[in-house]
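so im writing up the methods section and need the Sorbitol ABC transporter membrane protein record in one place, dumping it here so i stop losing it
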Amino acid sequence: MSSSLAVKPQQATPPPAKRSRRQTSTLSLVAPSVIVLLLWMIVPLAMTLWFSFQRYNLLNPDARRFIGIENFTFILTDPALWTAIATTLILVASVLAITIALGTLLAVLFDQDFPGRGIARVLAISPFFVMPTVSALIWKNMLMHPVNGLFAQITRGLGLGAIDWFADFPLLAIIIIVSWEWLPFALLILLTAIQSLDREQLEAARMDGANAIALFRFVMLPHLSRAIAVVAAIETIFFLTIFAEIFVTTGGGPGLATTNLAYYIFLKALLEFDVGGASAGGLIAVLLANIVAIFLMRSVARNLDT
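--- predicted struct ---
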């Protein structure tokens, strides 16, 4: 009696010698790029670590000497550092809240069908392609200028008088500028995510009597949770190093009102010429960025697992 079950032929496994040759060839192809990447990352970090233990001022470079942790002691006891860290956290949290909230609402809006939707989408994401320096100059000279700016013309027309944004509300002005720059990024990611939502699920919810608010709260928002976590993680990494907008508009002032951690390091390095102190501040910034990145990566991974 012949068996009716067909025996599937076993796939021959390559011998160990061939596998080792294949792994060796793969490593030889990947190794150059990995070595270049490691050098590109490790060399600047090692130099920063070395200078952080040195008393090195550019005005007197010959007086450089090893001083141990004195730079870290001075930096950590400097009130300006903690002011800069607080400003950085306020700036990051505020811009994150604005871009994610408005990005979610705009994503829901642009997902609807209306005349001119394609043009509206292009116009909505276009600010993301404007360089930070250029956008800061536009907001400083054309929109927020207390004499010739558009906002001043509007407030004077309403009888409220002109507002000097960069003198009276400097941090709020920076938050508005950075939010305008990064809102298109959040919109693009969230709109892509909301377009992947199953339309049959929406129709079933509508047939069950769900209104627009219930659809957004119980269907769309849970679907967007992963995308929101990814947007928050990516934006936070960039927001910790905001510099051009502050440099062009307020110069970190008035006083230390808009001095974040990146601008504080710039002041130490290129205005006070204190390379050792700036290097110590840079390492503190790297430590803070890694703590935030680890926290965000865990939250993103948690959302991806659910």
